[in-house]
Amino acid sequence: MSNAYRNNHYVPIWYQKRFLVPGTNELLYRDLKPDTFVDPRGVAHKTREIRRLGFKKGFAQEDLYTQFFGAQPRTDIEEQFFGEIDRHGQAAVDYFARFAHPWDGTQLFEELILYMSTQKLRTPKGLGWLQNFAAGRGSVLNVMVEQRSLFCAIWTECVWLIASAEQSETKFIVSDHPITVYNRRFGPRSSSCRGLEDPDIRLHATHTIFPLSHDKVLILTNRSWMQNPYQKENGIRPNPQMMRNALFHLLDIQTLRMLTETEVREINFIIKSRALRYIAAAKEDWLYPERFVTKADWHDFGQGYLLMPDPRSAHYGGETIMMFTGGRSVAVDEYGRHPGQSGYSGDRRSPGPDWNSYQRFQGEFSRLFGPERRGRACTGTRLDGPRLSDDYFQALLNGEERHRRLMSGQRT
């Protein structure tokens, strides 16, 4: 039997190549946990930390997806399942790395979100986590196939931001677990971040980071955190059920966020901190973000809001009513709840419980970052302007203290 499908890349070669930069044709791979060997003299040495492995060996493991029935290997998962996932995923990643408003009508959202969910599960770290998550349910590879859409609904209802490193000399790195999860409350040494563990994506303050290339990164933020970053970071977002349908508003994607060199290094530090063992980049310096960033600042990256979308380019709430041929209608709110479900926002006659927090945060965000938008979405069919008007900016600044005092129970 051919061995063509037994060298399994848990980070596809096509994806790794997206992190090449002009003038390079291979990546450098850093082993974060080098092995130790003893030479003939009995002296212990560590293996090389930096290696040029080539794409054939980078982020690959023999028989990771091979199933054995007696002595007979079966490569169906690599050959068929991942063959289809990667074909669609490659086109989707390429499209969203180039995404710009106005939307051109291309329909690749479902392909991207399914690829991302599968990618989070297919790595050694993801499979190890899934083994614990679905203990007793049979082969972990079969469970992976069954649960491939596990994260899709939660990510669909996040606020999406596509940010750029085009103005930074440092570019993004790629890790052996490319779907990176960050929650500012849980530092690299937290029990929620050790070994196979990641903070739950349903926690309010959890962001999901997915580099699309060396120059672009997709950042997903729970709407409950964008609307109220003053609550507990480890609280659970509304309607946390995972395996269900969800509604995506493509015009709400924020774009044109230009990252500084410091911000790119901080994101790389997060990616490196959440890797299981290996990271890679086109240049060696990029593999050592800890030379510029310290874990002591984990909670305060970007003044605590490194990955936050611009709340001034987002909207509060969001009930959607869909009409179908024959007169049937379906209503859903921003958290995927339907009429009759507890908390459904369409039943409220006044702004929701996070309204004052959201107003305060818009003011704080303006004070910290100024009138220039840090992400621009479409309002109606028009792209938000690059800068807030002077009157609107001043109104947000003036309102911050009033909302802060209101929230703290003081008289305004």
Structure description:
By secondary structure, the protein is of the alpha+beta class. It has two domains: 7-309, no CATH class; 313-407, no CATH class. The chain has helices at residues 13-16, 76-97, 109-122, 124-133, 140-146, 152-156, 223-227, 261-274, 355-369, 390-407; strands at residues 7-9, 28-31, 36-38, 44-46, 50-51, 60-62, 67-69, 72-74, 159-164, 174-175, 180-183, 206-211, 216-221, 254-258, 278-281, 320-323, 329-332, 378-379, 382-383. A five-stranded mixed beta sheet has the order 11-12-13-9-14. Strands 5-2-15-10 form a four-stranded antiparallel beta sheet, covered by helices on one side. A hairpin with a 4-residue loop joins β12 (206-211) and β13. α2 (76-97) crosses α3, α3 (109-122) packs across α4 (124-133) and α9 (355-369) crosses α10. The protein starts with 6 loop residues before the first strand and ends in a 5-residue tail after the last helix. The model has no long low-confidence stretch (mean pLDDT 92).
